[in-house]
Task: inverse folding
């Protein structure tokens, strides 16, 4: 087995490790952020980097294999959806976000299967797919560092007194305020890119349904 395929397997193996650790209680913080969030972030970033690295090495060393073509995109989907489900369970993002991602993946996979059946026509990746991938990685990473959920910065106050006086307000230090804005906006961008990416596949592949 070549190195790119080993990196793909490492990415898959890191997912259950991340899932198990998400249930571990660690009573420690660093820079006001729970230690567990930092650990999950590091694992996610390392796993995401292997995605970039295995593809780069496979192309550079001419080590593209059938296993790699199958396992690499599968590992990406497993990683992103697992990370999103962890964030859902932590109350940081709503469940409809990974649902949209999952629907898009089903649509794209279905179109690719039909394309193979119809003679191997390839539906080229589009710019929305690239935006989706990049924004998902950045958005998930930032959300791991956010102590609050999706678009909670709207209810932010910078004093504990105001937060204690009103149940609708959330106390956020400035750094957490900035992180939550960044995480929320980028994840929303990833959802928009996911929808447009899926729609582009449908639009460009409509000829496949003509018998």
Result:
């Amino acid at each position: 087995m070549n190195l790119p395929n080993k990196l793909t397997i490492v990415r898959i193996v890191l997912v259950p490790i991340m899932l198990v650790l998400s249930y571990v209680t660690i009573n420690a913080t660093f820079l006001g952020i729970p230690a567990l969030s930092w650990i999950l972030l590091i694992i996610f970033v390392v796993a995401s980097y292997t995605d970039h690295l295995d593809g780069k090495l496979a192309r550079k060393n001419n080590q593209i294999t059938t296993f790699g073509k199958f396992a690499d995109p599968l590992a990406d989907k497993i990683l992103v959806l697992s990370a999103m489900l962890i964030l859902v369970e932590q109350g940081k993002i709503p469940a409809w976000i990974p649902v949209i991602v999952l629907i898009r993946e089903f649509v794209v996979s279905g179109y690719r299967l039909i394309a193979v059946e119809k003679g191997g026509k390839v539906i080229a990746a589009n710019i929305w797919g690239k935006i989706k991938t990049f924004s998902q990685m950045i958005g998930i990473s930032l959300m791991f560092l956010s102590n609050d959920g999706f678009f909670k910065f709207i209810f932010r106050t910078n004093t504990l007194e105001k937060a204690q006086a009103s149940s609708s307000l959330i106390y956020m230090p400035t750094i957490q305020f900035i992180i939550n804005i960044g995480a929320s906006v980028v994840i929303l961008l990833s959802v928009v890119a996911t929808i447009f990416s899926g729609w582009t596949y449908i639009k460009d592949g409509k000829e496949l349904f003509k018998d």
